[in-house]
Amino acid sequence: MAKPWHLLADIGGTNARFALGDVSTGEISDLLTVSVVDHPTFSSALQLYLSTIESSGDWDERPIDGCLAVACPTDRDVVTFTNSDWVIDRKDLAFSLDIPSLQVINDFEAIGHAAARFSENDWEQIGGGEPRPDKVIGVLGPGTGLGVCGVLPSATQLNVMAGEGGHVDFAPVGDEEIEIIRLLLTRYRRVSAERVLSGAGLQNIYWALSQMHGAEHRHATPADISAAALAAEDPVAVEALAVFCRVLGSVAGNLALTYGALGGVYIAGGIVPRILDFVRQSDFRERFLAKGRFRDYLDDIPTRVVTRQNPGLFGALQSLQSRHQ
Predict the structure, then answer these.
(1) Are 11 and 44 in contact (CB under 8 A)?
(2) CA distances for 224 relative to 38, 162, 265, 283, angstroms
(3) What sign does the CA torsion over 5, 317, 29, 85 have?
(4) C-alpha to C-alpha distance for 127 and 98, rounded to whole angstroms
(5) Rounded to an integer, what distance in angstroms lies between the CA atom of residue 277 and that of residue 285?
(6) DSSP H or E segment with residue 35
(7) pLDDT tens per residue across span 32-63
(8) Which ranges of 98-198 does DSSP label H, i.e. alpha helix?
(9) Beta strands 137-142 and 265-267: pairing type?
(10) Residue 14 CA from chain centroid, whole number
(11) pLDDT of 299-318, one tens digit each?
């Protein structure tokens, strides 16, 4: 007999992850990851997943509820993605799935729901002490873009403060970063934090440093730049990744100050977990602390890199569970 199920999705600019969630047990299963560029529309990717579930014969044809975590603002009925051409019409989607209360939340709102419920196996700490209970948690994550949110836990409920903090102005520190932003302003009318703290941001840093050093631009993708840096094959790539880590520390420290994130700062996204050892050896933590008179304020705040697989899907399920309580 086919069983009822809940639809989970974590949709970024590069990949879309679909899964089946059970709000009663907290289990996530039947994961499918698709490349965004392989599907012209969101509905195409969703239909592929629904067909996969239906063909298994174990589940109902349509979900009874769902939560989509999407990498873009979610304050409109028609959701347009920042880093892809996909569009989601919330009303049409809810009607086609026959789900009156389908949730569509920001992808880092989902990470926020996850962060408040992480166990010690879900992260690696880089500096700081123990988080203060019931204090704000800051979350950021460079991937295709730069996601940011704040989380305010309490005894009765969890409040996730979603926003678009990745698009604040990039604040360079020191002559090298000032020269990087000067060069990037020849390419963009405005340089946001995401322009340097994302996959494309790593490319931008590498391009700018190549210009500054008169070096050959040898690597075209973020993965190639990272690989060359980790293997110490290209000194410009090594420097680019070092700058990336320093900027990450600065932005994380700014976030901690803005939110008063005494509950800790979590770093998610697809990039940092892959370069964890490099981050540990970099100036990341020093730049997190380098806030003048507020260094002591930041000193005990832990910075933790999220290593849990598919935290966005986990967070989407947490959001659904909180609604069903």
Answers:
(1) no
(2) 21, 32, 28, 22
(3) positive
(4) 48
(5) 13
(6) strand 27-35
(7) 999 999 999 999 999 999 998 888 878 888 88
(8) 107-115, 174-184
(9) parallel
(10) 12
(11) 999 999 999 999 999 999 99
